[in-house]
What does this fold into?
Amino acid sequence: MNLQGRNFLKLLDYSKEEIRYLLDLSKDFKNKKKKGIPHRYLKGKNIVLLFEKTSTRTRCAFEVAGHDLGMGVTYLDPGSSQMGKKESIEDTARVLGRMYDGIEYRGFDQSLVETLGAYAGVPVWNGLTNEFHPTQMLADMLTIEENFGHLEGINFVFMGDARNNVANSLMVASAKMGMNFTCCAPKDLWPNKELIDTCQKIAKTSGSHLTFEENVKEATKNADVIYTDVWVSMGEPDEVWNERIKLLKPYQVTKEVLNNANPNAIFLHCLPSFHDLKTTIGKEIYEKFGLPEMEVTNEVFESSHSKVFDEAENRMHTIKAVMYATMKDKNE
It folds into this structure.
């Protein structure tokens, strides 16, 4: 499998076999990391991380993965670059592509990372955009395989705002890899029709089934994986909280929801999660709306079914696989 020089912008660009290769490579890197086996295969190369949206997991995963592979890593926060302000995205891409061997972007419109990928001349990786979150998907799939031993035939349920980047990407990942995807959300918060139609076509070739359901009990029956995300995404105005809470409170992942799934079902969340009052935003929401837990109850989050921290760790191993696969020399 040769992915040398490829961008990693969305899973729609990758075949099932290519995704499978990245997952297997991730397992190999995770094994090496756990056993303390050095793997500085990209020593002498340099990467830059462009963050227009902050993150804990994405930044740390890319930085540690880069250092483990022997690379130099530069982090640029929103105030450290002229991209989009005094310098166009195209020009920024061409400058950075002359200095670095790979570029990560985390920010807003998918068109921005697509433009970087078109002009940089080196691999560009999507750390998150408004539309897609492909590196998160690899971590999610690796976590599912670690718990069930396979992806094909897994009954996967996403609960919440299914229009966001995570839900979009999970639907694509499920269709590509043969998982049965159920969107459990109010109809107004389902993914857009164009993406649904695209995924339905992919699902026909992989054997997966895509279902869209408003009834929580019906959607979560026989679920192997229940996944949720925050109800208001990064960058959305605070004014949407009231409406979103009213829409999504019935879709909170509770112990009752988990009990309706298969006995060995797991709970996943891309994090951060508002499952208690130990965050500033969590406290603010409680003061305004009297809601001590949001998208998931603390009982579920802290239960043995919850694999969210395995999932968070797997961001590092899967991102390492993406960088290595797209940056390694052709003769390796």
The longest helix spans residues 16-35. The two ends are 11 Å apart (CA to CA). The first strand starts at residue 46 and ends at 51.
